[in-house]
Design brief:
Layout: H1 10-17, E1 21-26, H2 46-56, E2 61-64, H3 69-76, E3 82-85, E4 90-93, E5 103-106, H4 111-125, E6 133-136, E7 141-144, H5 153-170, E8 174-179, E9 182-187, H6 193-203, E10 211-217, H7 223-231, E11 235-239, E12 250-252, H8 255-274, E13 327-334, E14 342-348, E15 360-364, H9 382-391, E16 398-402, H10 409-412, H11 430-448, E17 458-463, H12 465-476, E18 483-487, H13 497-503, E19 512-518, H14 521-524, H15 526-540, E20 547-552, H16 559-573
Parallel strand pairs: 1-2, 1-10, 2-3, 10-11, 11-12, 15-16, 15-17, 17-18, 18-19, 19-20
Antiparallel strand pairs: 3-4, 4-5, 6-7, 7-9, 8-9, 13-14, 14-16
Bound molecules: magnesium ion.
Amino acid sequence: MTLPLALERWPEIAGRMAGKRPALFLDYDGTLSPIVRRPELALLPPAARAVLGRLAERMPVAILSGRLREDAAALVALPRLYYAGSHGFDIAGPPPAPGEPPLRQELGEGVPAAMQRVADRLRRDLAGIDGVLVEDKRFAVAVHYRLAADRDLPRVEAAVDRAAADAASQGPRLRKTGGKKVWELRPDVDWNKGKALLWLLGRLGLDRPDALPVFLGDDVTDEDAFAAVAGRGGIGILVAEEAQPTAAAYRLRDPAEVVELLTRLADLAEAAAAAGGDAAPPGPRRGAAGPGQAEAPPAAAGPEPVPAPAPALPEDAPLAADWRAGRVHILGPLAVPGHTPRLVRIYLPSTFTPDAPHFALYMFDGQNVFDDHPSFAGGWHLHLAVEKLARGKRPAPVVVGIDHGGSKRIDELSPFAAESNGAAARGAGLDGLLDWIADSLMPRLAAELPLIGGPLGAVVGGSSMGGLAALYAHFRKPRCFGGALAMSPSFWVEDGEILRWVQAQPTPPVSRIYLDCGVREGRGTLLPQVAAMAAHLANRGYDPDHLMVRADPRGAHSEASWRRRLPRALRFFYRSSPSDEQRVPRQATGGAAAPSFRPTGY
Ligand SMILES: [Mg+2]
């Protein structure tokens, strides 16, 4: 059979792209990353990451992998991509269009529990055989035998077959598939990478004749996707040293050639965009992002679009099936009345145990709180900062990152409506979000995790609009949050209304406040506003034990600055031993009643 080399046929491929709306789908192992002896070491070459980032600016890009979705996403570490893990059983990505909820799809009820039983059994059965690695992939179990001796392979395969037969008697029927030095057991349902690819095309608005799906893969499990793109007039490219029977139309020899092809695709797409020829393909747009971008007060706008129907977890469903220390758990999407459904990211510190009470730190803009991967501008690595607290013998809080609602972020983090815009004013969406946090999210978390109740147990934090929202939340919900961590807070919103509003609020019974900003932020205009708030609080009796203010000479309005400042902010809230001395705050001037602080115990 002949299978032309894609790089040699580049003019033909480029010709097929002309005037089309391309969408790029890629397998990971063996396609983007060379096959390695241990799957956890299959890192993405930096050149591949760079070119995928360029392509994602121009077209939807999705990774279709047999790995766990989170694994694939962590290895690729690019926020704008769609990730379909477990051969397409588990799909997530940014909102396909502004205002829509993030993309999410998960198939197979009860499958992860059944797969865990199969994996446990195979680990027991194969314990005596060297070089076999059993991987629980949640929607599949993989038995890797690359490092095993050939003479052991019949025993390994027999154990896989036995596990499949026994599992079928109690749960879903399983199907055995083979790959490169691996057997996999998966639920025997009609779903595969090809179906996942077509589902994604539909959700991305590319179920149309001028769409051009392109898929690159290297393995037998990729053949369904090659067939799917061929059926849509798309382009399938097999990554293989030698030609072999396939539904793909072209071949690349190895992952290095993949990078070369992707580079040509990116050049082509950028040239087309520069010429203004091609319409921008549907897909996530940068505008839906978060902080770090211009954050003017909300401007006039038309009526709110109706939130998309919530593909949300039922209210009575457990938030997480399997809480584990030292891990970020991504929950949801959860329905938020009046807002778009959203994910909540929860980090349990490595010192977490279910039988000890823990503090909780609630953070706005959950996409930015942990890793770089879901964040457009880099994450704050808060999980690493929390682990530093634990190493310093300080209490390490459970971190609850609440994702923002994409394009509606500014609205939902705004405490104040723009009065001049009357009934159609944007903003003031924050009260609804805070009600949901207080009345729904916090009780659900308290039912599953040993969290310290009341304001002693919880601090709320964020940066920029999230910092403004955090300070407002502390004074608005003083029974929920006993502290506010506000980095570079957007105090200019509605002409500095937050200062006037705080001046009118009673002092919360438990109150510790952290404020910071870069000296030059907003051309030096933010610092005076932060200083004015700090002066007001000091006049009310906040002493250095209850108020920390930092002016960062190097600080910018950026994720990198907030990442750098977070550890110190955390040390302010979380101390190695609670102060048993109840300090009496300085008496407020002007005859205001002295606030009554309780020992905080943070
Ligand atoms: Mg592969």
